[in-house]
Design a protein that fits this description.
alpha+beta; seven-stranded mixed β-sheet; two-stranded antiparallel sheet; 11 helices; globular
Length: 348
């Protein structure tokens, strides 16, 4: 950072520059070069999509966990084919994005053979947001469902104790004639990272985001961090978070509910997170021309809906992220100067 430059100044790196830096950070801290590159790709894609809370900002935490023994950077991911279209993946406590990339690749390969395949993953850790995985699948012509469980932050409806994670779910459908349609969502009204940022900047939060430790809605981010996240849609969000944990945790033979270790409170302990991947080869359902025309019509019907506010036209899932992807690919990815310097130091 240049002398006199504001502490919160932003530097802009191209996709290739940030990918190279993130790869160096991980490789310098124990990951093989290929694994480091695969993990870096997921984090850089998150930043390209504008999800900076799950991008390279996570690298210092990842490195801390590897240094304390909470994550094994040399873990060998094993893949077992239990049926032609059914895979069981054991991350053996490897870095989450590495495990996720290998599971996705294996699931895609199986789906090419069978038309549809599912992979159940255990022994993993935080693997980033779901959108990089669904996006990568769409670029190869596959629709997909991707999910993970997480550290408990959500109380069951009617309860005042955290029992469920903010279990992210992603669904993607390719569009040969345009941008894919991708839903990327967690089960809370907002991610915990947004509350941490509000606490760090001294800002209040809407009382619909979280509760205090007694289960009462709060505008204090500090009380919220001591309490619980609120699921979106009340009991419906609770039910969906529960079902995601059954798929990703219980059926994968990973940890689930309160058995998941907190990477914040116990960074030295393996989390044994579970993931779920379902990949569908859309080429088996029809031609690219058919899918492209149908997707254009589908999206067009939604986009032609008259807007209640002309300044805010109707969007489809993933449209904001794809716009950010194009903008950041063109202009570079904005990285706060302190984070950039920290990453360079860790890489050294």
């Amino acid at each position: 950072m240049a002398s006199g430059e504001p502490a919160n100044a932003l530097g802009r790196l191209s996709r290739e520059e940030l990918l190279a830096l993130a790869t160096r950070v991980l490789h310098a801290n124990g990951l093989g070069l290929e694994d480091a590159g695969e993990a870096a790709e997921i984090l850089v894609l998150a930043d390209l999509f504008g999800i900076s809370t799950h991008g390279v900002e996570r690298l210092p935490s990842y490195v801390d966990r590897m240094r304390t023994g909470g994550v094994d950077p040399a873990a060998a991911v094993t893949i077992e084919t239990v049926a032609p279209a059914l895979l069981r993946v054991d991350g053996n406590n490897g870095l989450g994005p590495v495990v996720g990339q290998k599971a996705l690749r294996a699931c895609l390969a199986a789906a090419r053979q069978t038309g549809l395949a599912a992979a159940f993953v255990r022994g993993s850790n935080h693997f980033g947001p779901t959108i990089p995985y669904t996006y990568l699948a769409t670029q190869q012509g596959f629709a997909s469902i991707v999910a993970s469980n997480a550290t408990t932050t959500i109380a069951p409806t009617g309860g005042r104790g955290a029992r469920l994670g903010n279990n992210p779910l992603g669904i993607g459908v390719p569009n040969p004639k345009g941008d894919p349609v991708i839903l990327d969502m967690a089960m809370s009204v907002v991610a915990r990272a947004k509350i941490r940022r509000a606490a760090a900047s001294g800002q209040a939060i809407p009382p619909t985001w979280a509760t205090d430790r007694e289960g009462q809605p709060t505008a204090s981010p500090h009380e919220a961090l001591e309490g619980f996240l609120l699921p979106f849609g009340g009991y419906k969000g609770y039910g969906l978070a529960l079902m995601v944990d059954l798929l990703t945790g219980l059926l994968s033979d990973a940890a689930y509910l309160t058995h998941v270790s907190s990477w914040v409170d116990s960074p030295q302990d393996p989390q044994n997170l579970g993931h779920f991947f379902l990949c569908i080869d859309t080429g088996r359902l029809g031609s690219q021309a058919w899918l492209g025309a149908a997707m254009q019509d589908f999206v067009g019907i939604l986009k032609d809906t008259p807007a209640t506010d002309p300044a805010h036209p109707v969007l489809v899932p993933g449209e904001m992220e794809m716009n950010a992807f194009k903008r950041n690919s063109r202009e570079g990815i904005a990285i706060p100067a302190p984070l950039l310097e920290k990453l360079k130091a860790i890489a050294r």
